[in-house]
Specification:
The protein is of the alpha+beta class. Helix content is 55%, strand content 21%. The protein is built from 4 helices and 5 strands, in the order ααβαββαββ. The longest helix has 66 residues.
């Protein structure tokens, strides 16, 4: 009797052990499925869902622009017309070098119209103030706002100098005189009414394609 009871007890223990081992194996398999199958699938689904939402938002934005195309073009045309009719405008140019050339010509013409003799006009490109993130003076983003500084040295009388200052202040282009030095021309000491003036001018400009 004792031997039979021990045999039955051992069989029961073995059955419980097998059940525990089976349950542990099931847990391991379930964990492996969650780790290597379910979680990656869920992550890929979330990524596809985010991409789909972003694409949907992009399509909606483009559709809105298409619907509003006529009104946007009309608004742009109205603003261009208002700028064209405005009294003072900034310099527009497709590149910094062309903007510097335009500014140089503008200052030369203003001095000539004021009956002044131009000694020099310098527009260094390394003095340009660009929008943040621009790589170089020639690599300014399209429609980027920036400015150039110029130095113009002229010789003439006080009337011509006053005319030049008035033209720079009230002319068709937005220019700002930041500094000015005036002295009697040392090479013409006998002509006390002949002055030599050096002006530092800043010109805001827009680089357009």
């Amino acid at each position: 009797m004792v031997r039979g009871d021990s045999v039955r007890s051992g069989g029961a223990v073995n059955a419980r052990e097998w059940r525990v081992m089976g349950l542990g194996s099931g847990v391991l398999v379930l964990a492996a499925l969650l780790t290597f199958v379910v979680v990656p699938m869920f992550s890929r689904w979330e990524l596809r869902s985010a991409r789909r939402d972003a694409l949907s938002a992009r399509v909606t934005q483009l559709q809105s622009l298409i619907v509003r195309e006529a009104s946007l073009q009309q608004r742009a045309s109205s603003r261009e017309l208002a700028l064209a009719l405005s009294g003072r405008r900034v310099v527009h140019a497709p590149s910094m070098s062309l903007a510097a050339s335009a500014l140089q010509s503008l200052l030369q013409d203003a001095a000539d119209a004021s009956q002044l003799l131009v000694d020099r006009v310098e527009v260094p490109l390394n003095g340009a103030l660009e929008t943040p993130g621009a790589a170089s003076t020639e690599a300014v983003p399209s429609t980027a706002a920036t400015s150039l500084t110029a130095t113009v040295s002229v010789t003439g009388d006080v009337i011509g100098l006053a005319a030049l200052l008035d033209m720079l202040q009230r002319g068709p282009r937005a220019l700002q005189v930041e500094r000015m030095t005036v002295q009697i021309n040392p090479s013409l000491r006998g002509a006390t009414d002949v002055l030599q003036a050096t002006l530092g001018v800043r010109a805001p400009l827009v680089i357009t394609p």
